[in-house]
Design goal:
Two copies of one chain form a homodimer.
Chain A lengths: L2 H8 L2 H13 L2 E2 H7 L5 H13 L3 E6 L2 E6 L5 H12 L21
Antiparallel strand pairs in A: 1-3, 2-3
Helix pairs in contact in A: 1-4, 3-4
The structure holds a DNA duplex.
DNA sequence: CAATCATGTCAGCGGTGGATGACACGTCAG
DNA sequence: CTGACGTGTCATCCACCGCTGACATGATTG
């Protein structure tokens, strides 16, 4: 359903870079993330984090004046992987079943 | 490397719809695909097919005046799934290993 | 309360990507 | 060879997206 937003969010290289940082650090404040992303400024990183959050790919935890972000693997990431497995299953020797039931039960586009 | 193009290609809803058609039909001529995609015209579908082909997500077979397209699951789709598994592995009870070796050996962004 | 810090938001600008119609190219039938 | 057919390509227009600097907001410190 809203996997549309997830695919869109994943299309940006900077956003994938942010996901990479979060995958390595587990939890990170917005500022700490911005420090490791050198290609764009802090403002852009903030906006990207918003997109990722709305898309359901990362989750936000507010603590004082900090905001900590982390990977959300139970959000729309499931839908994305489900869709991809459904389309490319042929050449991927039966990875179906790796995701908890109802893989292959959703509409495609 | 060129998973950039693959992610970009996957970001468009029409292109995902095309992939859905191909996943269901196994092989389809350009015209047959265009007939099933009602949201845009034939020209747009042709361009989308080009993007998908360059991205390494579909393969083309020319036969006479027809061009048959089919899902390419051994192309950059592997890189995409590899990257996603690497990032979202936490909440996905160890699906790592479902892809043939060297999963998790590439850079992230 | 005033100052500072972490972060999000807004307006504006420039670039990019998608849709379309007209045209070009190869292929098959007569 | 000529005409019909299947497809790809090009020029154009339009809309959306990302980047930035300036400003706003909420929280902590003294």
């Amino acid at each position: 359903m809203d996997s549309n937003m997830a695919f869109d969010a994943l299309a940006d290289p900077v956003r994938r870079e942010i996901l990479g940082v979060l995958a390595a650090e587990d939890e990170c404040s917005a500022g700490a993330i911005a420090e490791r992303i050198t290609s764009v400024g802090r403002t852009a990183v903030s906006t990207h984090l918003r997109v990722l959050r709305v898309a359901g790919l990362v989750s936000e935890r507010r603590d004082g004046r900090f905001r900590y972000y982390s990977i959300d693997s139970s959000g729309s990431a499931r839908d994305v992987l489900s869709l991809l497995h459904q389309v490319f299953r042929a050449g991927l020797q039966s990875v179906d079943g790796a995701l908890p039931h109802e893989v292959g039960s959703e509409r495609l586009a």
